[in-house]
Amino acid sequence: MTKNTKNEFKKDEKEYIDINYINTSEGIEYLKKIGWKGFVFTQNVHLSKKVEKNTAGKSDKIEVEKTDYSKEKYLECKELGNTAGLNVYSGILLYASGVKDLEKGIKKYRGKCDVLMVKGGDLDINRFALEKDDVDILTSPAFRRLDSGIDHITARLGSVHRVGLNLNFSDILVKKGYEIARLLNSYQRNIKLAKKYNTPVIISTGAKNMYQIKSPENLRSFLTTISNLEYAKLSMGQMNNIISYRTKLKENNVLMYGLEFEKVEKKAENIEKEI
């Protein structure tokens, strides 16, 4: 990164928010030190079906929800964030093997977090997540795929329903050789589709430990190599936009985004006069 680009980055510095799994004081302080203003503390929720045999020897499908979600974990992490001067938001990442499981998971966990995410990869899962207003982010749509996991139809759905595509930088860190090139190619394809249909694109570290943490400057430099500087700036601010959108929806006088009713409060004296 050149000096001019670095200076431009500092001038353009906003409320950059990461998505990761960091929950230690050391990690949170480091996030603050390298320029993050906040992060979404992510907890995974696995929705699956366990197969067991009954007394007749036949297989019964019993729905089992394996989860590491804990409100207490989030509150502890938030307290550490407050001490370090960093905003911490609650995030849940849903893993589902089918659309029915995912639909149940969305209904159950939407009200329990600030940011609801879906782990992609399966085409049906990708599409279902992108057409749900209650989902904020589809992450890793190309997971275990030879293609990018997104086409013109699903990119348009993401735009209509305000569901962002997350480019998880930690996905690259665990790849080798040709796999890295293929993943970068899928990123470029999805960015191209996102630009065409105005679908939000987010980039995050997805860090699970100190060694995977990257600065906002590092991520924006990476985005610039696969898109351009202006688009990198836009993507870096999308996470803040998503949180602002969800915060707005939680207000009591908001029926839906863009549709609010005005609260009219009358004094007791005026009410008595009218009666």
Automatic annotation (TrEMBL):
NCBIfam families: RNaseP3Mthcoc. Belongs to the eukaryotic/archaeal RNase P protein component 3 family. The lineage of its organism: Archaea, Methanobacteriati, Methanobacteriota, Methanomada group, Methanococci. This is Ribonuclease P protein component 3. It is found in: Cytoplasm. One of its GO terms (biological process) is tRNA 5'-leader removal. Part of ribonuclease P, a protein complex that generates mature tRNA molecules by cleaving their 5'-ends. Its EC number is 3.1.26.5. Consists of a catalytic RNA component and at least 4-5 protein subunits. It catalyses: Endonucleolytic cleavage of RNA, removing 5'-extranucleotides from tRNA precursor. Keywords: Cytoplasm, Endonuclease, Hydrolase, Nuclease, tRNA processing. One of its GO terms (cellular component) is cytoplasm. One of its GO terms (molecular function) is ribonuclease P activity. The keyword tRNA processing applies. Pfam families: RNase_P_p30. It comes from the Archaea. HAMAP family: RNase_P_3 (MF_00756). It is an enzyme of class 3 (hydrolase). It comes from Methanococcus voltae.
